[in-house]
DNA sequence: ACTATAGGCAAGTGTTCACTTGCATATCAA
DNA sequence: TTGATATGCAAGTGAACACTTGCCTATAGT
């Protein structure tokens, strides 16, 4: 679960895709491809982007809805909310002896 | 910068090491090895752990101090604090026309 | 000096990963 | 139906990655 999430975030192109979906949610595959090429100069194939989106979807960061021949991709930031909690807000250690 | 950080977090063993350093900061390499073996059943070599610690240090998540033949590893959670901000608190889009 | 402990360096191996290439499917417009 | 658009599937390739193995250095205790 957490593994899929961190692995999804490990790739720079995927993080850029999240940036673009943050800027405008509900984009199609071609729209994302165009933005990666235009705004970020990424010479990347359509299939590569499609595979990245599949990884993001498996991590729960992207949700999709089909309409006719279009498939829209929506961002879901919920999985991101607490991923650093285990280190930033560590659980209190069990006291060795009962405190007063 | 962010790339090193996310790549460091992408490995499950490294995240477990962060957990152990959260539980007790300032551990030596051997101490971490013992904990990974005991508490997590990870049959992993000392060199592998050492390499993981190097990755974590390159990401700024672990800092080290040398004392005699011991090298202590301290956790630094600062790099973790704002890594999800770009998606959770996106910058406000520039308005197309000036609002009143 | 000898030995044990704690750690470091570097080459080799097998797997995972990002990406491409080629072909196939599905929807829509003429 | 024909053609263009939007996407999907699967095999192959090269690089990055996690891990091991073997040897080396340095500190500390006896």
Task: Describe what this molecule looks like in 3D.
The structure is a homodimer of 100-residue chains. The first copy, chain A, has helices at residues 2-9, 12-23, 29-40, 46-58, 85-88; strands at 62-67, 70-75. Chain A is elongated, with a radius of gyration of 18 Å. In chain A, α1 packs antiparallel against α4 (46-58) and α3 (29-40) crosses α4. Chain A contains five helices and two strands; from the N terminus they run ααααββα. Chain A has 100 residues and is an alpha+beta fold. Chain A has a two-stranded antiparallel sheet. The N and C termini of chain A lie far apart (40 Å). Chain A has one domain (2-78): Arc Repressor Mutant, subunit A (Orthogonal Bundle). Chains A and B meet through α1, α2 and α5 of A and α1, α2 and α5 of B. Chain A binds a DNA duplex (30 and 30 nucleotides) through residues 7, 11, 13, 28-30, 44-48, 50-52, 68-71.
SSE topology:
Two copies of one chain form a homodimer.
Chain A: H1 2-9, H2 12-23, H3 29-40, H4 46-58, E1 62-67, E2 70-75, H5 85-88
Antiparallel strand pairs in A: 1-2
Chain A binds a DNA duplex (30 and 30 nucleotides) through residues 7, 11, 13, 28-30, 44-48, 50-52, 68-71.
